[in-house]
């Protein structure tokens, strides 16, 4: 595996940066069904082919929740060019893919080329590989990195192309390939229904608003019942996830946070006793449903609209901002933390972006939480954590809220790599599993025990 990138951040390494733009911007797509623009039960064949459809004529489909594949070109019986479908109403973003392949032949070997990523810098250079599962092997696993290649392709206008080789081993199976572990809107709804069914008095679920396509904007509150009574003084920790829909690790981190806070451990009881956790696990449910990478249904990067969210164009962000402003104003509430959870497509590890303060004491206290998280979480990097006030980031939650909330509110972006973390002792790259992301979520909440010295 290639060595980890250096500690020096280029502009494309930074939080939220979309990086360099790939040249191939022209896209065609087939549009069928509700999942506009995705291929639908499509069998690419050579131009001259007039014969029957046989086993081994691969059938591609991305018309399902969170699916993304805009076009497939037949190159040869063993080779296909795949095109990521751009975000709805925003052709600039093409990263997330998620599709199925069936009608395979036993031991059929193929090479897929993903040819139109919108970014050039990628963790594929560091050894990241796509995820795969199949009907008979339903757990996601990463394709061996030795079968994955990322390079400038002379056959594709010298665009960066990610090629991977794969052998289908069971012709009855349907295979699914994805950029990262998918986490759909439906999966979140099912998880929240499970939490609802526990009937705990320290858990409350509200619908804070609805998306343009009328999906729930869920708000989960977890704290001891005494803290939830009107008029009680409370320290509030606000956490949001999935403002960028393709950043599915964010949802696993959120699950880790909610799961730990709901548990019956002594630590969880202490956290509930002293703090109120408010969690919005999916800020962009339409984008998640549609299989977008970065934008909402209407093509907005919601994390650039915090300064002026519109109730009709960005309803989920508008509702979230109203909640934040209310928490900020309420006399009995101390909004102490805002953490917005993302996933990073060019850097490894978990790390944070924070704000810059002129007053030294304030700046030092702002650095305490990420330092403590670093002590808890073996995958969290203090070295990659940075504090900035770039003008480009002015519309992000971390920057905007950092400027306008009470001085004592700490606002951070928490990033976690789509790929791996570096083992602090051995220096090895350890690829993240779903459980690894969940574990980071647990550590995010446990760190508040250290911060508030609750034990
Ligand atoms: Zn993001």
TrEMBL record:
Active site residues according to the UniProt entry: 415
Biological process, per Gene Ontology: proteolysis
SUPFAM superfamilies linked: Zn-dependent exopeptidases
Cofactor(s) needed: Zn(2+)
Residue ranges constituting the Peptidase M14 domain according to the UniProt record: 181-452
Transmembrane region(s): none
GO MF annotation list: metallocarboxypeptidase activity; zinc ion binding
Family classification: Belongs to the peptidase M14 family.
Protein name: Peptidase M14 domain-containing protein
């Amino acid at each position: 595996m290639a060595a980890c990138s250096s500690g020096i951040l280029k502009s494309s390494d930074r939080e939220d940066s979309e990086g360099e733009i790939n040249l191939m911007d022209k896209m065609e797509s087939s549009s069928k069904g509700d999942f506009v623009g995705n291929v639908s039960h499509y069998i690419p064949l050579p131009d001259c082919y007039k014969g029957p459809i046989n086993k081994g004529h691969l059938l591609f489909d991305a018309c399902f929740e969170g699916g993304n594949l805009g076009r497939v070109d037949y190159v040869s019986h063993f080779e296909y060019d795949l095109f990521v479908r751009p975000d709805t109403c925003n052709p600039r973003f093409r990263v997330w893919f998620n599709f199925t392949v069936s009608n395979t032949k036993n031991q059929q070997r193929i090479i897929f080329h993903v040819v139109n990523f919108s970014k050039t810098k990628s963790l594929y250079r560091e050894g990241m590989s796509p995820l795969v599962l199949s009907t008979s092997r339903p757990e996601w696993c990463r394709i061996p990195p030795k079968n994955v290649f990322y390079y400038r392709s002379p056959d594709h206008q010298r665009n960066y192309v990610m090629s991977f080789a794969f052998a289908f081993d069971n012709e009855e199976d349907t295979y699914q390939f994805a950029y990262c572990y998918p986490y759909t809107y439906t999966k979140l709804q099912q998880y929240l229904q499970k939490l609802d069914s526990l009937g705990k008095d320290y858990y409350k679920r509200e619908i804070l608003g609805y998306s343009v396509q009328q999906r729930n904007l869920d708000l989960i509150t977890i704290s001891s019942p005494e803290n939830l009574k009107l008029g009680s003084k409370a320290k509030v920790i606000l956490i949001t996830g999935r403002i960028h829909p393709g950043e599915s690790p964010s949802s696993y981190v959120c699950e880790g946070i909610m799961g730990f806070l709901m548990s019956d451990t002594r630590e969880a009881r202490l956290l509930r006793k002293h703090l109120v956790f408010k969690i919005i696990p999916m800020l962009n449910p339409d984008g998640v449903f549609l299989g977008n990478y970065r934008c909402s249904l209407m093509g907005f990067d919601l994390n650039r609209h915090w300064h002026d969210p519109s109730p009709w164009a960005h309803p989920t962000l508008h509702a979230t901002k109203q909640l934040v402003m209310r928490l900020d104003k309420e006399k009995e509430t101390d909004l102490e933390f805002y953490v917005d959870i993302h996933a990073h497509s060019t850097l490894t590890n978990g790390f944070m972006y924070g704000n810059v303060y002129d007053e030294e004491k304030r700046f030092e206290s702002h650095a305490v939480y990420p330092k403590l998280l670093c002590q808890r979480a073996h995958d969290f990097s203090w070295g990659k954590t940075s504090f900035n006030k770039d003008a480009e980031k002015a519309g992000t939650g971390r920057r905007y809220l950092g400027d306008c909330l009470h001085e004592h509110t700490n606002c951070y972006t928490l990033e976690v790599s789509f790929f791996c973390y570096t083992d602090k002792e051995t220096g090895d790259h350890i690829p993240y599993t779903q459980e690894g992301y969940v574990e980071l979520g647990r550590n995010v909440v446990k760190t508040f025990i250290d911060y508030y010295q609750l034990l």
